[in-house]
Write a structure and sequence with these properties.
The longest helix is centred in the C-terminal third of the chain and has 7 residues, at 444-450. Strand 2 and strand 3 form a beta hairpin. 2% of the residues lie in helices and 50% in strands. The protein has a 29-stranded mixed beta sheet that branches. The radius of gyration is 22 Å and the shape is globular. By secondary structure, the protein is an all-beta fold.
């Protein structure tokens, strides 16, 4: 077993003491959103408000595949119950003298949550034998060894490898165009750099993403931990043949800190990763100037997802491409969620087809609460100063210049006067909050912004198989909704099979709390 040490004392967390096989393990701190889901229409309340931050913790360990690790976790806070997620890991524990004791063998990622999800401990265990074939001295290897590196923009050429070794803590970012066959690998940490604005292909400005690749191919990103991105964490535009494996994303409290944005790209795989974000975890997008490129042959598998705001697994909302097709989400655990778990918000004109959800496990907590609603308004963004004129819509907190404010239909209508970028106090009932399980729609507002002169999208040939929902005692089935937009813009040919709630099969749409809306055809459950 190898221990990842902190470069500075201020990187350490005091929320937990952790020992593994009798050795003290450094516990690192990170900043996450304090609320499970916040609806807002400005960045100050979406992600950066001081009232919407809290500390969480993580540890990184390298271990041999056959090494059994004995953990003793001592939380700072008092607790009466514990959850170790995802439940599919099957990790049993005992509590002895305030210590949470358990064993784990192998590699993977999971959380320890004493009492509730606030201040959770994230545990990331890598295979110590990885990258044995990498030569640190090769001229084609950019090597970051143990310790702190203030690197800024890290430039890569075709054919090169960036090796961020175990124990390396790198402050920096990657932005490349038109290169191929390169790797970013290792068990170190990449931490966000300061915000930047760099013009790139097609008039796009790349803004503060930890990794942004345009028109690239043959990409491997493997093993690293990504921390505190001020914008999207990994974004690819018009890329082909990319593998992302064993990535850990944590500490994303900023607005729009999507985990992995796959934009007009093909043949992309994300696997064996832990994705916790302050916005969507994984989302498939399409927009200019790459709208001629389809989104196809996308695979997301064996991942653990925690979504603090937005959607865990999202298709859209931007959907400018001829086709989205051959997309699969398989063998994934969604351990906390916000707006929705499995969602289409197709705004654009794409024909979206051949989408598979298979072996997806979703955990709902009794500690999740309805959001505190935050509103920021100015004269250019609304048609009325009065909240009673706002239109209800599932895309919570979205606003567009010259259009009405949309507020999530899960919320009660709030009638308030104009507020100039202020939090609006909203005290939801003290009861568990169940967000959408499925939410599949065609979004008129995104279409009108992105491609108003084009036909609307269609969604079809969707299969959801072996979806297992777990709720705490006393909670019911979360809601689902499927709808289209018009006679010529529909959602159709969707099959839901083997849907379970706490181990019991759900066989009717009524029992599934599943609403079929307008312009949705041939939606079946079995």
């Amino acid at each position: 077993m190898k221990i990842f040490n902190a470069p500075f004392a201020e990187k350490l967390s005091k929320l937990y003491d952790v020992t593994v096989n009798g050795k003290d393990i450094p516990v690192f701190k990170c900043i996450v959103k304090s609320r499970q889901f916040v609806a807002a229409n400005c960045e100050s309340t979406h992600g950066t408000a001081e009232t919407n931050k809290e500390e969480a913790s993580f540890v990184i360990i390298d271990a041999d595949k056959d090494e059994e690790l004995h953990f003793e976790v001592t939380p700072e806070k008092k607790f009466t119950e514990v959850r170790i997620r995802p439940f599919s890991k099957g990790i049993d524990y005992d509590v002895k003298n305030g210590k949470i004791c358990f064993k784990f063998k192998g590699q993977g990622q999971f959380t320890v949550e004493p009492e509730d999800h606030h201040g959770a401990l994230h545990i990331f265990i890598n295979d110590a034998s990885d990258y044995a074939d990498v030569s640190k001295d090769s001229p084609d290897v950019i090597y970051f060894g143990p310790g702190y590196h203030d690197a800024g923009r890290i430039r890569i050429r075709s054919g090169q490898t960036v090796f961020i070794d175990f124990g390396a803590w790198v402050k920096g970012y990657f932005l490349e165009e038109n290169i191929s066959n390169f790797r970013i690998i290792g068990h170190g940490i990449v931490e966000k750099t300061d915000r930047y604005d760099v013009p790139v292909t097609g008039g796009i400005t790349s803004m503060a993403m930890e990794m942004h690749f345009l028109c690239c191919s043959g990409i491997l990103v493997d093993g690293i931990t990504m921390l505190d991105s001020p914008m999207w964490v990994i974004c690819i535009n018009n890329c082909n043949n990319m593998i992302v494996n064993n990535i850990k994303q944590i500490g994303m409290f900023w607005g729009s800190s999507d985990g992995f944005d796959i934009v007009n790209s093909q043949n992309i795989t994300l696997s064996n990763s832990f994705i916790r974000n302050g916005d969507d975890c994984v989302t498939l997008k399409g927009f200019m100037p790459f709208e001629k490129q389809n989104v196809e042959n996308i695979s997301v598998n064996r991942c653990v997802l925690w979504c603090d705001w937005g959607v865990a697994l999202q298709i859209g909302a931007e959907a400018c491409a001829e086709f989205y097709r051959n997309i699969s989400f398989t063998d994934c655990d969604v351990i906390h969620q916000a707006q929705a778990v499995l969602s289409f918000q197709t705004g654009g004109y794409a024909d979206v087809s051949n989408v598979l959800y298979d072996d997806i496990r979703v955990e709902y907590s009794k500690h999740a609460r309805k959001p505190i609603l935050c509103i920021g308004i100015d004269d250019d963004q609304v048609e009325s100063d009065n909240m009673e004129n706002y239109e209800s819509h599932a895309d919570a907190g979205t606003h567009f210049k010259g259009k009405k404010k949309y507020v999530d239909e899960l919320f009660d209508t709030i009638k308030r006067p104009k507020a100039e970028f202020k939090d609006i106090d909203y005290n939801p009932p003290d009861e568990p909050f169940l967000c959408w399980l499925f939410h599949i729609e065609i979004c008129e507002h995104w279409h009108d912004i992105l491609a108003p002169e084009t036909p609307f999208a269609n969604n079809h040939n969707i299969v959801a198989h072996n979806i297992r929902v777990y709720t705490d005692e006393g909670m019911h089935m979360p809601p689902s909704k499927v709808k289209g937009h018009s006679e010529i813009s529909r959602t159709y040919d969707m099959t839901v099979s083997d849907l379970y709630l706490n181990g019991k099969k759900v066989e009717t749409f009524e029992d599934a709390n599943f609403e079929i809306g307008e312009f949705a055809d041939n939606i079946t459950i079995k």
